[in-house]
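The data layer described in this paper is built around a simple, fixed record for each protein. Such a record has a labelled line for the sequence and another for the backbone structure tokens. For reference, a complete record is included directly beneath this paragraph.
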Amino acid sequence: MFANIIPSSDKLKRYVSSFTISLKEARFPVKYMAFPNLGTCLAFFNHTAFEIQGDEINFEKDETKCPQIILLGRLTSPTVVTYKQAVEEISINFTPSGINYFFGMPFLTMAGQTFQLLAEPQWNEFASRLFSEVPEKRIALLEAFLLSNLIENTVDPVKWDFGSVAEIAQLSVHELAETACMSERNFLRQFQKYYGCSPSTYKKILRFRNALDRQYSKHTNSYHKFSPTKHYFDSSHFSKEFKEFTGSTPRQFNKASFMAGNGSSVFKLL
């Protein structure tokens, strides 16, 4: 259903993990569950209608709809996504703080909800230009657009790249604030603005994604048996957070069917 493309620009790779394009070969309708991830996603849609109900979003083909852009907020719970038919979609999968380098406002200001339309005239004008181009040239056009909108001298807080469990999971808020040379209060406020959640929630997602990625097999598109990593207090702690982010126990999750998704994500089929 999806194909992932790594940016060709070395400069963009610091901020964008991959691009995702939709494929028409999949059998529809397709319904899956997405889980909290470290990065976020901005998706361009053409001739597509969508409906949002809480933590669920439904897509279907609609030739009357102009190009639109959906921006995902910080997912903190499992989210159900349904495609009733094949639609035209091109997504940008940003690194944890990457999206902040392309807009003149912090992430939380743009994406306070799970899903929202991006109300930026320049980007919406580009969406129309993107889909008017032939498919094989769209990613190159998108990369050029991103590079032209890159703000490398953005404010310091977004330069925290807490990308590994070792860097953040074992540190207290006080220690993290000291690392960022801020008071705890200011650190909490800035972190929420640029990462879309609190440091404690981010650490939980980080632990979860690390446990998930360690057990995933690209060859079989499935997961090995889960067990708590050293970053969880015990098996009870692991199971509680695992269920919070997937809606199922590790054992139930292990028996499910999956498909490759955006970037490093894998989606549970429903």
The two ends are 15 Å apart (CA to CA). The mean pLDDT is 88. The CA atoms of residues 261 and 267 lie 6 Å apart. Residues 199-215 form the longest helix (17 residues).
